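Hi support team,

I've been running sequence recovery on a batch of backbones for a student project. Most finish fine, but this one hangs at about 90% for roughly twenty minutes before it completes. I'm not sure whether the input is malformed or the queue is just slow. I've pasted the structure tokens below so you can try to reproduce it. Let me know if you need the job ID as well.

Thanks,
M.K.
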């Protein structure tokens, strides 16, 4: 039995490496990451309202924001300059404070910003922000990375918060050149697994 397995292993290994190579070629040489990101983002609009909710992402260390958090901060700044949201809610442990520092350095008034710094997951983002919005009227605009919007919008809806998506072109930007396509693909695979997990838990 061992010898039979030993004979079959080389063929199995070849098939595995061939599959990995095929995936790598498809990801690096086609716009598949951008196409999937656009699907996850949903309708691409720039809605306005009295409340902008920005979800924090990764943080490298204290005071240094991760790549996806950086793009969310940049587009939050652009959105504020265009629409002057009366209230900007930044949510996410550590990342929220980093985004606040970025925005205030760029001229966004600190009195327009409210922080939620406990959340470490998308579900906690929604639950903690719900507490902050208990008596806040008007439309709520949700901003997060394109590949994250599918799950985030549904998590907020499940938590009882009706949000209007305003996605950030994160994976789409990465997918614009071949060097960024593999990292974007990894982000999308991880996000797809999280979507499945959240669906199984009934959180979306």
């Amino acid at each position: 039995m061992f010898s039979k397995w030993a004979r079959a292993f080389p063929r199995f290994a070849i098939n595995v490496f061939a599959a990995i190579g095929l995936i790598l070629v498809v990801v690096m040489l086609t716009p598949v990451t951008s196409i999937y990101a656009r699907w996850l983002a949903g309708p691409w609009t720039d809605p306005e309202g009295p409340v902008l909710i920005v979800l924090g992402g990764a943080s490298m260390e204290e005071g240094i924001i991760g790549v996806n958090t950086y793009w969310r901060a940049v587009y939050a700044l652009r959105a504020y300059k265009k629409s002057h949201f009366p209230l900007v809610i930044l949510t996410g442990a550590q990342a929220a404070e980093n985004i606040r520092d970025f925005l205030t350095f760029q001229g966004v008034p600190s009195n327009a910003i409210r922080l939620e710094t406990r959340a470490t997951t998308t579900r906690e983002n929604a639950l903690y922000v719900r507490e902050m919005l208990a008596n806040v009227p008007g439309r709520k605009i949700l901003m997060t990375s394109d590949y994250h919007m599918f799950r985030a919008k549904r998590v907020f809806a499940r938590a009882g918060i009706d949000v209007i998506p305003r996605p950030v072109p994160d994976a789409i930007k990465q997918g614009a050149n071949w060097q960024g396509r593999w990292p974007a693909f990894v982000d999308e695979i991880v996000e797809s697994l999280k979507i499945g997990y959240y669906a199984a838990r009934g959180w979306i």
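--
Follow-up from support: It reproduced on our side and the slowdown came from queue contention, not your input. The beta strands are 51-55, 59-61, 64-65, 87-91, 113-116, 140-143, 163-165. No action needed from you.
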